[in-house]
Amino acid sequence: DIGGTWYWNRYPGARCDIESMSYSYSFSPELDQEWEWGERYATQPEILRYVHHVADRFDLRKDIVLRTRVTRAVYDGDDHRWQLSTDTGRAVTARFVILATGCMSTPKDPAVPGADSFTGAIHHTARWPRKDVPFAGKRVAVIGTGCSGVQAIPVIAGEAASLTVFQRTPAYVLPARNRPLQATERAALKARYPEFRQAQRCSRGGTVFTPPTRSALEVDEAERTAAYEAAWDEGFLNGLLRTYTDILTDEKANETVAEFVRSKIRSTVNDPATAELLSPHTFPFATKRPCLGTNYYETYNLPHVALVDLRTTPIERITPRGIRTSGGEHDLDVIVFATGFDALTGSQLAIDIVGREGVTLRERWADGPRNHLGLVSAGFPNLFTVLGPLSPSVLTNITVSLEQQVEWITTCIDHLLGNGLTEIDAIPSAETAWGARVAELAARTLYPAVDSWYTGANVPGKPRAFLAYAGGLDRYREECDAVARDGYTGFVLSSSTGGRSLPAPDRCTDPQHRRHG
Ligand code: NAP
């Protein structure tokens, strides 16, 4: 069925950690007015209902083919078209291909031996069954404590006879403060939705907030703590990050937040040894994506919940009865892998993509992804990527990022078609410059030094690179618009009869304008 992330990630507790009235499409003012979000942070079923509503309202289903996996895409340089093969045998020929395959859609198993021998059930959070998974009376294990595990753990604990959490690296988990939305607050935002959507479009990360102006080290401890307490009480994913300017750029500033979160863990978790195990010490705050939780730390106070530290007692294997670590065997009925994804590049490289002169994308990206603007890779003409590597994608509210990229791609295709052009391809030197720019922006932050899925470090053998554009969605939008305005600099535009790049027509960068023709 349709829904993407929100189809597959239907594990208990799955919900969005960006506020629902922000995390929604902005392209239709009518849609904005008619949809009624129920909670501050929408649940997976609610978001899936919204996606279905959008598909029906805009009559999209007629253009959607389900139960079909694209397995191969080969560029025919003579015909200037892509030949797509699928696992159903259906073949498709297309001039333009847009990979909207997801930045977090290739699940990663823990690669622990023996999983096939387990006599109970194993489920990955990102491939959760459509039918109910019963936990009542069961001995359950969760492996992984990233955002998915953090959401699932308290909900599973509420049902299971026992829950054992296998943790390799503790996360920084902030309270979501989720609640039902009041009709009055929905109405108040709807009354100013057009301005709100515009502010989102112009924002750094796709959410609207007042940017900080001071360093965390400029103020005394009492003032800092008060600011952190206020952010903690508000319950925003990036609330703590937005208190001061240098949380992501200065280790000392960062440590003040990290220690604040640890103090919250110590004051919530009754057993000091468990609190210490749950306290992150090995990476700065927010250099791995922070998590929003509900009763996450409180769950470890329940008598039937146990924490296993995989740093001191690693998993040796999964056995028919459960999980064996170096510390002993845990008998189980259900194992949940909350072990994440081959992020950002996994879904594209899963397709056998063959570009000009038989070069594959896997070969081209052997040392890490290369592209111009995070949109097109040299040698793979007319193949666009939405939310792919080297774009702001996962560092932003992706509903805003994906609309920006879709608008840019649509304008580009309009330009090609309107000028008798058949192809757009990236210039290798522009790719090199873009890669350097993305790396330089990341180098201003604490991100690149940390092993995370942002750097590809969670997948053995994956080339290490910081995979997202850290300059902000506002700046990225300006860079993309400038490239188009200046005649698609860094790209070659050509026609099948040999014609070359034409200057781009004047265009308004306001997507509203384009939408209305
Ligand atoms: P993740 O952040 O990559 O977390 C995976 C967890 O599994 C980590 O704790 C990791 O430990 C652990 N792990 C991986 N392999 C393991 C192994 N072999 N043995 C033991 N532990 C292992 O994945 P995720 O939790 O699915 O989240 C991924 C991203 O999806 C999030 O960061 C977020 O962007 C998105 N997400 C969003 C929401 C939302 O509310 N919008 C909800 C869920 C997810 P290490 O840290 O030691 O590798």
Kindly describe this structure.
By secondary structure, the chain is an alpha/beta fold. The chain has 3 domains: 68-105 and 356-516, FAD/NAD(P)-binding domain, CATH 3.50.50.60; 107-171 and 288-340, FAD/NAD(P)-binding domain (3-Layer(bba) Sandwich), CATH 3.50.50; 215-287, no CATH class. It has 16 helices and 18 strands. The strands form 6 sheets. A 5-stranded parallel sheet has the order 5-14-6-7-10, with helices on one face. The chain has a 4-stranded mixed sheet with strand order 3-2-1-15, with no helix packed on it. It has a 3-stranded antiparallel sheet with strand order 11-12-13, with no helix packed on it. The radius of gyration is 24 Å and the shape is globular. 40% of the residues are buried. The model is unreliable at 502-517 (pLDDT under 50). Residues 15-17, 104, 110-111, 125, 143-149, 151, 168-169, 289, 310, 338-341, 394, 453, 458 line the site of NADP nicotinamide-adenine-dinucleotide phosphate (NAP).
